[in-house]
């Protein structure tokens, strides 16, 4: 990747990290941020609690994104770029929910800017890599199968569940409080994961890049959901849901292990990939 392109992506990462840090801090430490929207009837109490939980995760992740971005400015690294894009996937998803579901807090315009910047960070980053770099990476078939199985598990478990919940909302002609999840997952995230899974399993060059971004995005988002499942019970909003907490904790741990192994392999140039498509 050219130095200029890396710097552009890094500067966008810095902008995302700074704005998301202060937005998340406001959500955690200023109860009026979400309560004002709740009192207006726009969002439910469940979304208030869930938003605070997400902000608790966003705070440390925004700091990590800032560190990654600064390191890329000082020493260009494709590995760091993959990590940055995976982090951008988290902010795309998290603030995409805020924007799509119309959480019109006093910071809503900031949410929109973060959402837009995360989209262009992913676009600039994914299109900036050259074929020579990711065409030299290679992964054992057993590892590629493990990653494909992990991504497939997410799709076949959550996909039908989201469709079932969405059909229930359609029957009542009224959207549920988490309809933004259905939009992002079914229209964008799951198709992107499916493409990443297929390309990486076939050992294609571009699949190498997509797999790393997908794994880090899965790690951060699933970790956020697992934390939220614990937080809602901690806040005495509802009873602890052991199944959801356990499932997303498993996905978090599995994605972490696969991601560590991914970066171990990516430093080796043992053989070349089979195709560039």
Measured as a percent range, the helix fraction is over 70%
Order of helices and strands: HHHHHHHHHH
Q: Rg to the nearest angstrom? A: 19 Å
The major beta sheet can be summarized as: none
- What structural class do the secondary elements suggest? mainly alpha
Q: Give the oligomeric state of the chains in this entry, treating copies of one chain as homo and distinct chains as hetero.
A: single chain
DSSP strand (E) fraction? under 5%
Instruction: Using the alpha-carbon principal axes, give the shape.
Output: globular
**Individual helix count:** 10
Average pLDDT, all residues: 89
Q: How many strands?
A: 0
Count of spatially separate domains:
2
Low-confidence stretches: 270-277
Distance between the termini: 18 Å
Q: How do the strands and helices of this protein lay out in sequence?
A:
Elements: H1 3-29, H2 32-39, H3 45-74, H4 78-100, H5 108-128, H6 131-135, H7 141-172, H8 179-201, H9 205-234, H10 242-266
Structure summarized in a few sentences:
The chain has helices at 3-29, 32-39, 45-74, 78-100, 108-128, 131-135, 141-172, 179-201, 205-234, 242-266. The protein is mainly alpha-helical. The longest helix is centred in the middle third of the chain and has 32 residues, at 141-172.
